[in-house]
Specification:
With about 220 residues, the chain is an alpha/beta fold. The protein is about 40% helix and about 15% strand. The chain has six helices and four strands. Strands 2-1-3-4 form a four-stranded parallel sheet, sandwiched between helices. β3 (about 115-120), α4 and β4 form a beta-alpha-beta unit. α2 packs across α6 (about 175-190) and α3 (about 100-110) packs parallel to α4. The longest helix is centred in the middle third of the chain and has 20 residues, at about 125-145.
């Protein structure tokens, strides 16, 4: 392509035309705050979390947001019959610390699922993008490496108002994260053979109400 452009410029120069070649204009990237796509609510089957052990690690950065998300998460877990004594909570300074804290919880062997809660709000520098991508990848790696489900409960918003709408508004995202946690904990229990195993794959049919059967330890968390 470059040789073609140079040849075209040379021909134009010989013919008496201007040899300046104008590069194609780059298409401007859409504004990140222009519109929101992919907003919606997941559907969940009825689940029994009475024997599920849940660890919640939340960041104290933007704690007005993470506190509300934590409250919504805790309330929903209790509504799903997760005993209060089976819910372990701890906190870290910011979102960047969530992956390591989650890995330590997973390696402790005292929890069936981890909910990592944080809130990142875009600013004037690339810090938001770096931390958002790093935390998402880190939490995913913890789940894949330890076979302990990790629920990504980190809001990544353009403005503080968007974060408020997703934590204090009509749809507290902590509710969905709690439901996801119970479902994934029961899925893990089924897949790893802690329930009666079927012929192939998971031990029960999709949509069947599940309860974990693993005996509860005497202590949860760290």
């Amino acid at each position: 392509m470059r040789s073609f452009v140079l040849a075209l410029a040379a021909v134009g120069s010989v013919a008496g035309f201007s040899s300046r070649v104008v590069a194609p204009a780059r298409r401007a990237a859409p504004s990140r705050g222009a519109h929101m796509v992919g907003e919606g609510v997941a559907s969940f089957v009825e689940l029994d979390g009475s024997t599920v052990r849940v660890a919640i690690v939340h960041s104290r950065w933007n704690d007005d947001i993470t506190g509300a998300l934590l409250d919504g998460c805790r309330k929903t877990l209790l509504e799903m019959k997760v005993p209060a004594e089976n819910i372990f909570e701890t906190s870290v300074p910011g979102a960047f610390e969530l992956p390591l804290a989650s890995r330590l919880l997973a390696l402790s062997g005292t929890t069936d699922v981890i909910i990592a809660i944080g809130c990142l709000i875009d600013g004037e520098t690339t810090h938001f993008d770096v931390i958002s991508n790093t935390v998402a990848k880190g939490l995913m790696d913890v789940g894949l490496q330890t076979a302990t489900p990790v629920v990504f409960g980190v809001l990544t918003c353009n403005t503080h108002e968007q974060a408020v709408a997703r934590s204090h508004g009509g749809h507290n995202h902590g509710v969905d994260w709690a439901k996801t946690a119970v479902e994934m904990a029961l899925l893990r229990s089924s897949a790893l053979g802690k329930r009666s195993q079927g012929k192939m794959g998971f031990s029960v049919a999709a949509g069947t109400p599940l309860t974990a059967s693993e005996p509860a330890p005497s202590k949860y968390g760290f």
